């Protein structure tokens, strides 16, 4: 089968597109004929070695998200059958092979039924960011209808999904981003208020708009805890999902005297049953048109190295939406 | 009535012991004839002005914790009657008068039935620290039997209560403190393992003893987040309750890649019904002999200023246990 893989961690140039042996599903694995996959920041950290697992198989197929159709099932697979359309995330880490290949053997516990009217590209593009957003908002922040969420970085892959999902849950959403084009994009996603973090005094504007937020979703690598805590209501919850190498100042008094909580998580360490609950709700929202991924481009497996370079340049505005491959 | 009060915030010398008019219970207040009260760090912050509420009544009676007996009830008080023994905390803040007085008019929602075999001094000494410990361990950390708790600063007022309570819940407890005498004290409180934070490499010793802790209870004003996060299991919870003016470094990656959460709270902002649930469980543990306050001394209202000076010198070892007044 054709696959995009590496023989050792390092720069995007290490990605090879070529032939690897077809995998065989064992145990409760199924064989998925891939139709689409997408790129996430974690893919580049694994590939570069920044977050490579100690038990990484080599050659290692890159990629976490997928959409495809079942081609065969392993002897203990019970839920899925050949011909079923599926989607999923959480591959290419913790010793598992990735998804940038024509075929993959994946444990059926990581695969979700594809809603009828959803495209492979949409499901693949929303897999990791969608599950991340749901786990953060529901499992960690316990977001309730009528509460207010601030999404700091609302136009990115996760941020844009958090905006839509918080609205679907019934929350009021304040998004921050930079520049009129991205601000308009956040509005089209459903944000009730949009601020420009380069020009607006965010805590001051939050106070004027809402008197404080219940949930702050941080996407920046360098969270500004002074501004965050100043923007929160008492008993507010802050979600942290990025900043692997960051060290920032933490104002202790502002945190505890407001009875705040801070919740960090890495989606790929979230228990499989929690991810499945998220995926089932995401399936319903996708089918109902309440969630939609903005896709920057749909490329082919041959473009894998270039897609990683684009993903790594995303902070400088290289992409506007998800990078997807059609397989 | 005799009371210890201030006419303006400032040093301990501002505390006056003298006569004030007897209060009259209105609404759902009851009149408590005080028998004991105790000193907590928050009392000194309120008195000094560091944490004085904007609507502080003047003259302001100091003190938060209390034990006493009902002398009279207000027209809407429904739960308590004259002669009932009660205990409580959470006075002397948020615009309410304190407890260092012969009489106090207190809303009955803040008062709890005194267990039969418990002394006024014990209940007053355990009120704020006990409710704080319970709210942190149960409401915020969701501590489960069989989990491991590290109490950083196990010989202090809150720390010594957290050790006992975590053991009563069925957790394994690691306590840190300094010097052989305090280490032995932590052992008598029930700590399974005791470390000296001046000499031990805490994360290394935690790894050897337990492979990581589920809950870290921080009592220090300057939390060392590198050491804390290195000591935690995945999905561990950290409790912060002090450090009003502290700023410390926060390693973002170590926090979120371990799926940790950080919970800050000020006991006096905890909802009244959550405090009552804590108080009811504390009453049962007190009655069963599972909780015991170490009392440094029992003094009189006349000693109030000296008690505040001692409390403020507690970091330099001026006291070994709670400061209590018998009224």
Strand percentage of chain A: 25-35%
Radius of gyration of chain A: 20 Å
> How many discrete structural domains of chain A?
2
Quick one: which chains have the greatest interface?
A-B, 34 and 34 residues
Helix content of chain A: 25-40%
Order of helices and strands of chain A: EEEHEEEEEHEHEHEHEHEEHEHEHE
Tell me the number of helical segments of chain A per DSSP (H or I, 4 or more residues long). Answer: 9
Oligomer: homodimer
User: Got a strand count of chain A?
Assistant: 17
Largest sheet of chain A: 7 strands, mixed
Overall mean pLDDT of chain A: 96
CATH topology term of the largest domain in chain A: Quinone Oxidoreductase, Chain A, domain 1
Subunit structure (chains A, B): Homotetramer.
Keywords (chains A, B): Acetylation, Cytoplasm, NADP, Oxidoreductase, RNA-binding
EC number (chains A, B): 1.6.5.5
Subcellular location (chains A, B): Cytoplasm
List its salient traits.
homodimer, 327 residues, alpha/beta, Quinone Oxidoreductase, Chain A, domain 1, Rossmann fold, 2 domains, 17 strands, 28% strand, globular, EC 1.6.5.5 (chains A, B), RNA-binding (chains A, B), Zinc-ADH_QOR/CCCR (chains A, B)
Characterization of the model:
Two copies of one chain form a homodimer. Chain A is α/β, with parallel strands linked by helices. The first copy, chain A, folds into two domains: 146 residues, Quinone Oxidoreductase, Chain A, domain 1 (Alpha-Beta Complex), CATH 3.90.180; 137 residues, 3-Layer(aba) Sandwich (Rossmann fold). Chain A has nine helices and 17 strands. The termini of chain A are close together. The mean pLDDT of chain A is 96. Chains A and B meet through β14, α7 and β15 of A and β14, α7 and β15 of B.
